[in-house]
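Justification of computing resources. Each target in the renewal requires a structure prediction run like the one illustrated here; the chain below, 162 residues long, is used simply to show the kind of job we budget for.
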Amino acid sequence: MAGPIDAGSSDGIVLARPEATILDTHAMEWEDHYGIKGGKMKVLSRDDDGLPSVVLTWVPPGMTSLNPRGPERHYHRTVTERGLVLFGELPMLEYESLDDPSPRRIVLKPGYYLDRRPGSVHGVDHEAPSQVGFMWVEWRIGRSHFQAAEGAAEENVVEFLE
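Resulting structure tokens:
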């Protein structure tokens, strides 16, 4: 079973014990998101290996890719990715496969819930980036490697578009 965050490592801890953690996310400090250039995150929970599993993520306006190397589409081999949009919007492209020439454009907005299973090909719409930014609570089940994290190549299959 995944454990709570380390009680000594972050602000905002209201209660931290083996069977329960309560955080005041308003009191927590934002940290740079290692997977999103210019993005910020608050790690709410980590898996047994210490990787973020539940994250409050803020994405700045104008972001064109989830990968620091540039616009891409990708899928996760084993990770189920779930999220609830709290603020803003994020234009995404959802593909039937890596070969799909006509992806469906979906703008994630407040109240949208995403349940993306392993193999679901997706990417940020790099031609129409968000003008207002985006915030969501994201949780991952499986080896939750963000694209820029060490070991990400084991989990993510990426095709660059440019």
